[in-house]
Amino acid sequence: MTIHAGLPAHGRLRYVQLAAMGRDRVSVACRSRLPAPRTAGTAAGRYIEKSKTDDSDPMEARDQACIALCTVPDTDHADRIAGILVEERLAACVNIIPGLVSVYRWQDGLQRDAEALLLIKTVPDAFPRLQERIRALHPYELPEIISVPIQTGQAEYLQWLQDNVAIP
After folding, report:
1. What is the pLDDT of residues 114-134, one digit of tens each?
2. 81-92 pLDDT, tens per residue?
3. Distant-in-sequence, close-in-space partners of 40: CB < 8 Å, separation ≥ 6
């Protein structure tokens, strides 16, 4: 089921598309008749040099892209691991989020540690190699290495992501 509706949004007419994605999930896509302001400084913005608008349809990304999450003890470890993953083309991009506090149970005790989080953009086919590489580089005995699928996204960004990960 798909529903289309025109809504005013800050002086622009926006079209909102709601599409049922399966049990208890809905995908929402917004498009504008006017170009969106260009966002400078993003990796995708540097890769795609010409200005894009909101008129491009989102791309279904199931089984094509995912975000791996990994906590590390500090930004030094985060920077080192992120650089290696991108250099070896196991990830297209890694965001480092410093200043986390993790609360967890380890060896029958409650732990509270300062950490950094890596948001690793990759593809599912590369995840097994990415996981092995992180385990080899990571200082923890049992590092957090999990993956969540990207359901939909900007088509050009998802293509850039796939183009910058080496698939085995």
Report:
1. 999 999 999 999 999 999 999
2. 999 999 999 999
3. none
Tokens representing residue 4 in the block: 């289309």
Strands, E assignment, the chain: 2-9, 12-22, 25-32, 58-60, 66-72, 93-106, 109-122, 146-149, 152-154
Q: How far is CA 65 from CA 74, 131, 134, 152, 163, in A?
A: 27, 15, 18, 9, 11
Cα separation, 11 vs 78, whole angstroms: 42
Phi-psi domain of 79 (left: phi exceeds 0; alpha: psi -120 through 50; beta: other): alpha
How far is it, in rounded angstroms, from Cα 62 to Cα 158?
11
Question: Cα–Cα distance between 127 and 125 in angstroms, integer?
Answer: 6
